């Protein structure tokens, strides 16, 4: 549908990213099950021809012992989901290191359940849950995240339990808390295994699986694993512990996000960057060498390459020949103006997420919500109030009820490029729809508080789904009508194991619901590894 409203009204093609059929539309060449090779973020702005010619030179330009070599490297995605023993959650076979297993006092049948929560959360509910969990599990097994400090971080408290196959972890909080505990577990395994051996290849695979008590606003990870959308008082009782014991361990894909700004962020901008994206300062010489190698090469894209891209790639998915429909770029990818201004030490941000990553429209709404909550916490005292405030932000900031393009968030077309790894291990650019205002990468099928925006996909297939948003009304239709009409979903533009994105001006971004404003730079999202998470199949909680 292609009709333009009068005097700057809505172009109904803004809703063309919604798929009205049961089939997910993707380019077959952009589907990939495993990594084929190690590669670097350098490829993210080069044409296929440039990648082939410069790939080896780029890899050689990064010394093996350089911090950048680790920053820009990617881990291989497993060929198939790892399945755990339904009872213990570990592979029940002898192997190297099996003699290192330990045993602890049991407080939940044959298991030990260790709980983490913030006593200050939920407007006073946190204190009640803390007392309840201490009564159910024992005070020594319950840790208050409000009292974290040197020597008393979650990783410090989890480390003694790491080699016990019958310990389960209960995290009480929102998606941010779940990510924090999973990252703390990463620190534990790094101390035990070092950097050489992934957890899924170690004797401790499946140890310390995570269960969830939802105390946040969106609770998307909790929804995905059957722990419910919101907290209820029944979760304060023994039934919750029984569910943790009965739950089945399943692997959860996790994704590494590396953000490299062209210029260092200001102090004010840096304070909004999510804590999960730890800041790293790189040597200026190393940063300039890497970025100049990446971005100053001349593109060697042939006319035939352009034709293939405008036709939607080898998969043959036709893309309308519209000046706004496909991101265009001059022959040179040079950003020397950004590289030469790097400070003596240059920033990068590096972290791991579980749920989703996005740039543009929805991140703008999330940032406005998050900023007001930080500045006026008294306005956010319950999940219901939080949801109402989020809807208000969607209308005032996201243009949910806007019928003029002037009040909508700015487009990504021409300012943002999205590259995905194809079946040959090379990065290809995805054409954007006309009037694109947002891009999202989905690992789980619950987004922004339970919305399902795409069909298919799994949290343990080693792939991440790429979708585009063009208008907030389309998001509203999908969110509001999707539960009734499950065929009403956004088109999946790619399922892939690595995505590289370049933005040429500031845009709002978010990772697992934590938003910030990011200046021009480059993102790489790649497979990180798998963590064991407990799936509740019996409902919560009686």
TrEMBL record:
TM helices/strands, residue ranges: 466-488
GO terms (BP aspect): phospholipase C-activating G protein-coupled receptor signaling pathway
Segments for region (Disordered): 297-323
GO molecular function, one term: ATP-dependent diacylglycerol kinase activity
Database matches in SMART domains: DAGKa, DAGKc
Any GO CC annotation of this UniProt entry: membrane
Catalytic activity annotation: a 1,2-diacyl-sn-glycerol + ATP = a 1,2-diacyl-sn-glycero-3-phosphate + ADP + H(+)
DAGKc domain sequence ranges: 108-261
One Pfam family recorded for the sequence: DAGK_acc
Keyword vocabulary terms for this entry: ATP-binding, Kinase, Membrane, Nucleotide-binding, Transferase, Transmembrane, Transmembrane helix
EC number(s) recorded for this UniProt protein: 2.7.1.107
Family: Belongs to the eukaryotic diacylglycerol kinase family.
PANTHER family: DIACYLGLYCEROL KINASE, EYE-SPECIFIC DIACYLGLYCEROL KINASE
Identification of the protein by name: Diacylglycerol kinase
């Amino acid at each position: 549908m292609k009709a333009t409203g009068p005097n700057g009204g809505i172009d109904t093609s803004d809703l063309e990213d919604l798929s009205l059929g049961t089939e997910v539309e993707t380019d077959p060449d952009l589907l990939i099950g495993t990594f084929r090779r190690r590669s670097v973020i350098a490829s993210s702005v080069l044409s296929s021809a440039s990648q082939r010619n410069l790939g080896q030179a780029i890899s050689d330009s990064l010394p093996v012992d350089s911090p950048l070599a680790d920053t820009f490297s990617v881990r291989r995605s497993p060929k198939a989901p790892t399945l755990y023993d339904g009872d213990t959650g570990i592979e029940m076979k002898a192997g190297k290191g099996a003699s290192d297993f330990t045993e602890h006092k049991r407080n939940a049948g044959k298991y030990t359940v260790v709980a983490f929560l913030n006593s200050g959360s939920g407007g006073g509910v946190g204190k009640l849950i803390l007392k309840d969990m201490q009564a159910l599990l024992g005070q020594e097994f319950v840790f208050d995240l409000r009292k974290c400090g040197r020597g008393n971080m979650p990783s410090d408290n989890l480390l003694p339990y790491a080699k016990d196959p019958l310990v389960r972890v209960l995290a009480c909080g929102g998606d941010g808390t779940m990510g924090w505990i999973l990252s703390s577990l990463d620190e534990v395994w790094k101390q035990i295994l070092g950097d050489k051996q992934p957890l899924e290849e170690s004797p401790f695979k499946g140890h310390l699986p995570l269960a969830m008590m939802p105390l946040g606003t969106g609770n998307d990870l909790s929804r995905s694993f059957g722990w419910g959308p919101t907290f209820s008082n029944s979760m304060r009782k023994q039934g919750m512990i029984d569910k943790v014991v009965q739950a089945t361990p399943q692997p959860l894909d996790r994704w590494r996000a590396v953000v490299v700004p062209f210029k260092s962020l200001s102090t004010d901008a840096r304070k909004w960057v999510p804590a999960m994206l730890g800041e790293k300062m790189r040597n200026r010489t190393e940063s300039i060498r890497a970025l100049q190698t990446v971005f100053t090469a001349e593109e060697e894209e042939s006319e035939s390459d352009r034709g293939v891209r405008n036709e939607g790639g080898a998969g043959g998915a036709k893309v309308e020949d519209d000046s706004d429909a496909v991101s265009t770029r001059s022959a040179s990818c040079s950003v020397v103006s950004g590289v030469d201004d790097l400070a003596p030490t240059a920033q990068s941000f590096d972290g791991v997420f579980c749920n989703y990553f996005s740039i543009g429209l929805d991140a703008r709404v999330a940032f406005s919500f998050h900023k007001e909550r930080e500045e006026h916490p008294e306005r956010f005292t319950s999940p219901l109030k939080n949801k109402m405030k989020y809807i208000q932000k969607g209308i005032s900031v996201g243009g949910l009820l806007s019928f003029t393009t002037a009040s909508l968030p700015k487009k990504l077309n021409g300012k943002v490029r999205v590259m995905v790894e194809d079946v040959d291990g090379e990065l290809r650019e995805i054409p954007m729809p006309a009037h694109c205002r947002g891009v999202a990468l989905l690992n789980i099928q619950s987004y922004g508080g339970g919305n399902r925006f795409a069909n298919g996909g799994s949290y343990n297939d080693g792939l991440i789904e790429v979708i585009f948003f063009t208008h907030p009304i389309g998001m509203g239709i999908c969110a509001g009508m999707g539960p009734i009409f499950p065929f009403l979903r956004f088109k999946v533009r790619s399922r892939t194991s690595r995505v590289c994105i370049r933005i040429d001006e500031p845009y709002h971004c978010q990772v697992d619901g934590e938003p910030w404003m990011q200046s021009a730079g480059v993102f790489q999202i790649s497979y990180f590894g798998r963590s064991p998470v407990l799936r509740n199949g019996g409902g919560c909680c009686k």
